[in-house]
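A further point concerns the way the authors explain their paired sequence and structure data. Each protein is reduced to its one-letter sequence and a matching series of backbone shape codes. An entry of this sort, consisting of the sequence and the corresponding backbone structure tokens, reads as follows:
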Amino acid sequence: MASRTGLLERLRAGANAGNLAAVLSGGAAAIVYIRTLLPGVSFGDWAEAEMIPSRLGILHPTGYPLYILVNKAFTLIPVGSVAYRANLLSAAAAAAAVGVAVLIMVRLGVRPVIAAGAGLALAFTGTVWQEATFSEMNGLHLLIVALLLHRALVWRADRRPRDLLIGALLAGLCVSNHGLAITVVPLVALFVLADARQELLASPGLLVKAGAAFGLGLLPYLYLPLRALAGPPEVYGGFLTWNGFFSHISGAQFRSDMHFLSAESVGAAWAALPKVVDHLVTTSNVVFVAAGLVGLGVLVWRDRWFGSLLVVLGVVNVYFYANYLGDLSHYLLLTWLILAFGLGLTAEIIVAGLVARLGQRAAIAAYAILVLPVALAAGNWVSHDESANHDGERFAAQVFDALPPNAVLVTYWDALTPLSYKHCVEGVRPDVVLQAYDAAALVTCDRPQLPLIEVAKVRPVYGLMMFPDSLQRTTGLTPVAEGEIKLPYGKRYPEFDRPLYRLEPADGTP
């Protein structure tokens, strides 16, 4: 009995040390993220994610309803601007994901200090750090995926029905947050269901309960039609039809960029591997990547179930990245998480070998892994410190200063989102009307002013476009350049000088 009690105490001590390592590493990541957080508005999708949730609107496909609701809760925190609060959600979610990654590594047999070091190395890689300082749903996606993998491990170890149900709920929430869940949730579910087949055969009702828990996680999608009911119908009416709703949540408008089922897609993924490896090494270092791959191989040998799951998830993640647009680095967040597990296991093997040869005193070598996150933090700090980044504010101020009273501005996505945030959320230039060049863009609080050829007879109309050649054909008005403004295009900063155009009737009359 005494020996059994001693074993329980050691297990509890190990669990407590693992929890402490998770809290400390997640806390350290949060401190760095908050210190380097973007203080205000950004551009494009990042500015949309700062604006739309605060006004309870609808984000671009695939809708991201869970993110909208969580982000809205963060905007109620009384600190900084609304944009800052939305950015803060990314920092909190990414830091929490680091903590969960540490818990996963501890469950894989990695000692807490090594798990903490590998978790912090994950935190300070370029991709994760960047996503932690800008508002978007990617940090929350990483957190939910980490929680889902952790719960799968807990289920496998303890075989408790409640863990299966919690995992199913997390799977539903993952789908409600990000379309990338389609590359994660079915695979995790397949592995878990195969592992739980005996329990499910013995208790078929458990599968029904798991399905109900998954459905509960999908409930945030009800937000989209409920929001549409509040109108206005000319903006949100499409969400009240099944075709409009499903088209949005399935990302139908982006399918032409997806190439997953063709023979060429395998070749594209293979051809993209050097680029992926180069990206991984550039945004971390060769030690992180090499040690991560070695540790992943060891995990497959030690734990075929979880190791194989991670390998399949990593392959699918890279495959999807390569065959969508091929340049969205945040689509590789799952790959980073998997490599961090491998890094922790490689370091554990090295330290365990030293202890076996030299005795318990050699365990102090475990602390050497802390050098890696310190080096990554030092190397990436300058490029990922956004605390002095006011590009969005300067851009909006320049545009609004250039517009006369009561102007209507027609502009495109990357420019419209920061302008709409300042105009609709912070109340800048209430006399101005912002109009999306793309009518499907739901990122302005102003009613559309159409037809512009008639509007131009009573109000000054302006156009600001990255590619302005179609302005005259689309609006029926003649563009007259009035100065230049540096514009963004697909990036988090402006880089292209383009004219601001006054759009006048063809006959030149005001």
Notes: The chain has 23 helices and five strands. Residues 21-266+365-384 form one domain.
